[in-house]
């Protein structure tokens, strides 16, 4: 029973990381029709940001890195949007392939800058170890990641529903033409979306340094699952992404627990296909009569 | 002015050009290459042709059918493992275990392996395994109208899951190392240059036949329907067809061609392992098709050969540089030549036409003036300005 | 119009989009061989009605029976296979295929899958007849992408004819056409209606007045009135909600609130 319950914080923290990654994907996908495979490399960039900051901030690097990684990854995303992706709006499949090319280049850049072997980021001492709660072992690092993701979701929710910019973003997501006609500068909104979405990937990267080593291919381990979260959650939907991310995270960790790790992804895949039989457009759907 | 008559002439001329080009390539591949290339190079070419077989399937599913399949590695792998399992068992001899099982302490042949002793069963599985899985997946996914990027993401997830599963099943699949060390292939000695040449011919002939078959398919009513589904799936429903069936058929065929490619890859290269099948190798196959030209089947073949040749050449000399080059090439192709090498000729022609005749003729046909000029139907001798389709018809 | 069993019988039909009742309890019958016009202001539910019949939109309640068979719950291609065809407001044709191939695909849906794998040999008589009828013969081998707007509409109609449906539903077939093209389309419609049942949704009142015999007026998701053109035009209710302000109805209700949901095409 204890072993079973101990799996809970692991699943939740994986779900939290997936959520941070998927948020950016679901918004860029939902709003611009862009499938950004290079999103995984923004995670990697965030993680290496934490690694770099160790020289300066020592063991508190993770904390310092959170805002810095957000900015670094966000700027990378913005740069990518401005230079390349902008030309590809409305061609989602082409953006997928294009950004995969970008992702290859970025991984190689990381290899040249930091070397191919994995590196470690030392967690702050107060995040080492764990406590016990109701007999469940709660590693501080995983709890921290969970709280971090929840705070991020709250911030995004606040931004989307309570600020003018966020409401504009929602408007563009629901109906780009209409939003454009109503005087919303859609291209600026796109840039903001890209910045925030990519920034969140950077934050996810920092979080990942708490539970594993950092390497040039870090992003590739998470990007596929994060895309599955988008598919299952429904495009551009905050609630959908939250639920799908945690379900996937928990499913992954529990299947690994019950059978073996190699089967987990197969089971998750089967579950998603099964789920799509019931809800082909994901958990939450933006209703529209438009056929695509 | 392009009149219908002229257009007909053009397509007829195009058909002859196609036959001549096919004959020339066949001559090059079947007669010139085997006598001019060293055994080592010929083996490499055989490997590229294996990739070309898989690429053909992508050309059909993606280029003609609009289904971006990022999981062809799975089907390639299923075909490859089916073949490799048989070769391993044939080598071990009756009642014996394949070498890697002995090393990893497996004492009894897994039940899954047993029927692969039979060559006919293995050959059947090369086609059936990928075909069935693709058909099932296609019906489930397309039947629920999951498509476009969603489909691409799902196929990619399948590739990721498949590889992780393969690696985990050490005793069953050889794990990370995969299956390797084959010495013979249905009586061919894989160490002999002479027999390798025969193998090369087999690969080339399979590729040629598959190419002709797919050409025929694309030219058939079904092929037209597939293009129609690509360009307007929802409209096709109102023509009385179920797009899910149309798409599943093409997806299944692409999976089968990947399976065949994998099965031939095993004796040619001598190994099948998870590293060859994952997300990245699957994407590389698609990339090859994009480089060659996704809208033409010939582009898929060309791209697979060109790209893998470039990969071998570059990574022999500058391994790191290759990744930069590959990335840059990818970005460049997607941004500037979405129709690939094959489409470049048409693109250049358009560009020149634009320069010499001015931009007026570039008005896209799909945005006609609200009130169309003239009773064009009654005066067919003077059809609409020949705009737009120039680039579309360039590839067939 | 007193046939024993109508070919199309819609009863108690309601469609709700997120709380908005696009169709609010419509009963409508179309007899075999009839040429019926559906008119009404924007947002009256005309296109939605066609969408429900053809399986594109699921109704909240009610039934649609065609030749004695229930259509609600059937998928789009199944409805077509039962013999109901439609066109769209925005003509959608397959631009990369030739005009002939477009029509041929429409004509071939009854073929089995293996039969579809064969190459098309020449031009079938049926396809040739349809191309001739729609005046597209000379353009048969051109890619459909080069067609003008009016020609596209005709190609849509040609594809519909090639399907040989028992019931044809045309959604604003003359929208955006020149006067001459409208006339030709009208003649074509009358000709088609001789041996088929046709329902036409139309905005262009001049067109309706010229070609309509039986008219059903929809308003806010309900049937306002039914009858021949003269009696409908004389109906004070109709004048109020629809033709009201001006006797010149040629420019189809400019002041009616534009209901976004009405505008639709397959994109």
From TrEMBL, chain A:
Gene that produces this protein: urtB
PANTHER family: ABC TRANSPORTER PERMEASE PROTEIN, BRANCHED-CHAIN AMINO ACID TRANSPORT SYSTEM PERMEASE PROTEIN LIVH
GO MF annotation: an example: transmembrane transporter activity
Family note: Belongs to the binding-protein-dependent transport system permease family. LivHM subfamily.
Record's protein name: Urea ABC transporter permease subunit UrtB
Membrane topology: Multi-pass membrane protein
Location(s), subcellular: Cell membrane
Record's keyword terms, sorted: Amino-acid transport, Cell membrane, Membrane, Transmembrane, Transmembrane helix, Transport
Cited InterPro entries: ABC_transp_permease (IPR001851), ABC_UrtB_bac (IPR017779), BCAA_transport_permease (IPR052157)
TM helices/strands, residue ranges: 56-80, 92-110, 140-160, 194-214, 226-251, 263-280
Pfam family, one: BPD_transp_2
GO annotation, cellular component aspect: plasma membrane
GO biological process: amino acid transport
Organism: Yinghuangia soli
Automatic annotation (TrEMBL), chain B:
Localization (cell): Cell membrane
Alphabetical list of InterPro entries matching this protein: ABC_transp_permease (IPR001851), ABC_transptr_urea_perm_UrtC (IPR017778), LivM-like (IPR043428)
GO molecular function: branched-chain amino acid transmembrane transporter activity
Chain spans, region Disordered: 361-396
First and last residue of the signal peptide: none
Biased composition (Low complexity): 376-389
Keyword Membrane annotated: yes
Membrane topology: Multi-pass membrane protein
Tree of life domain: Bacteria
Coiled-coil ranges per UniProt: none
Segments of skewed composition (Pro residues): 366-375
Membrane-spanning intervals of the chain: 20-38, 44-62, 120-142, 149-168, 198-214, 255-279, 285-309, 321-338
Gene Ontology cellular component annotations, sorted alphabetically: plasma membrane
Keywords: Cell membrane, Membrane, Transmembrane, Transmembrane helix
PANTHER family: HIGH-AFFINITY BRANCHED-CHAIN AMINO ACID TRANSPORT SYSTEM PERMEASE, SLR1201 PROTEIN
Protein name: Urea ABC transporter permease subunit UrtC
Organism: Yinghuangia soli
Phylogenetic placement of the source organism: Bacteria, Bacillati, Actinomycetota, Actinomycetes, Kitasatosporales
Gene behind the chain: urtC
Automatic annotation (TrEMBL), chain C:
A Pfam family assignment: BCA_ABC_TP_C
InterPro entries tied to this protein: AAA+_ATPase (IPR003593), ABC_AA/LPS_Transport (IPR051120), ABC_transporter-like_ATP-bd (IPR003439), ABC_transptr_urea_ATP-bd_UrtD (IPR017781), BCA_ABC_TP_C (IPR032823), P-loop_NTPase (IPR027417)
Gene3D superfamilies associated with the record: P-loop containing nucleotide triphosphate hydrolases
Residue numbers spanned by region Disordered: 243-267
Molecular-function annotations in GO: ATP binding; ATP hydrolysis activity
SUPFAM superfamilies from the UniProt entry: P-loop containing nucleoside triphosphate hydrolases (SSF52540)
Alphabetically ordered keywords of this record: ATP-binding, Nucleotide-binding, Transport
ABC transporter domain location: 8-245
GO cellular component: plasma membrane
Composition bias type Basic and acidic residues, residue spans: 258-267
Domain of life of the organism encoding this protein: Bacteria
Alphabetical list of PANTHER family matching this protein: CONSERVED COMPONENT OF ABC TRANSPORTER FOR NATURAL AMINO ACIDS-RELATED, HIGH-AFFINITY BRANCHED-CHAIN AMINO ACID TRANSPORT ATP-BINDING PROTEIN
NCBIfam families: urea_trans_UrtD (TIGR03411)
Name of the protein: Urea ABC transporter ATP-binding protein UrtD
Organism annotation: Yinghuangia soli
